[in-house]
């Protein structure tokens, strides 16, 4: 009985590989398949890139920031930051990382 189950499993796996990867594409079938794929992809909602979400967590210095956007967020929204020495609204002007 175990041999029969093993044989059936091998046959099923071979058939699956053949139908998905190795089977020559019939032009009629291939056209139908792309229509189905196009319909499915047109119904999908494309994700919009999310804006980075930063939170005030007590960091105050440019050396603690990971990006210019993060530094700008901290200067605009967080108290006691020390990243805009000349108070022109542009943080970390002398930081060569950004």
UniProtKB/TrEMBL annotation:
Residues 58-93 form the Excalibur calcium-binding domain. Residues 28-57 are annotated as: Disordered. Residues 36-53 have a biased composition (Polar residues). InterPro entries: Excalibur_Ca-bd_domain. This is Excalibur calcium-binding domain-containing protein.
